[in-house]
């Protein structure tokens, strides 16, 4: 289990799944965390949605490994 992350206001808004988003920011700003939290939030709040219905794009092997492990 991963430790709970403290999210900024902007990150919390990005997790809101009532709209489609694109997250762009510099290295180390929490993009992968936001992506993971957004997916988890959608799965937890919508029992009809399944993990295999998601497509997540990232540009580093490190971020891909983090997404896969979570």
How does this model look, in words?
- Helix 1 packs across helix 2.
- It is built from three helices and no strands.
- It is globular, with a radius of gyration of 12 Å.
- It is an all-alpha fold and 70 residues long.
- 7% of the residues are buried.
- The protein has helices spanning 9-15, 31-45, 61-69.
Chain-wise SSE layout:
Blueprint: H1 9-15, H2 31-45, H3 61-69
Question: Descriptors for this entry?
Answer:
70 residues; mainly alpha; 44% helix
Number of strands: 0
**Distance, first to last CA:** 8 Å
Structural class: mainly alpha
- Overall, the morphology is globular
Mean pLDDT: 82
Uncertain runs: none
What series of H and E elements makes up the topology? Answer: HHH
Helix content: 40-55%
The number of distinct helices, counting runs of at least 4 residues, comes to 3
Radius of gyration based on Cα positions: 12 Å
Largest sheet: none
The amount of beta strand, in percent, is under 5%
């Amino acid at each position: 289990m991963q430790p709970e992350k403290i999210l900024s206001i902007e990150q919390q808004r990005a997790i809101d799944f009532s709209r489609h988003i694109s997250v762009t920011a510099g290295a180390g700003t929490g993009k992968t965390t936001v992506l993971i939290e957004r997916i988890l939030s959608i799965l937890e709040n919508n029992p009809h949605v399944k993990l295999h219905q998601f497509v997540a794009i990232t540009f580093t092997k490190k971020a891909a490994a983090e997404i896969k492990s979570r």
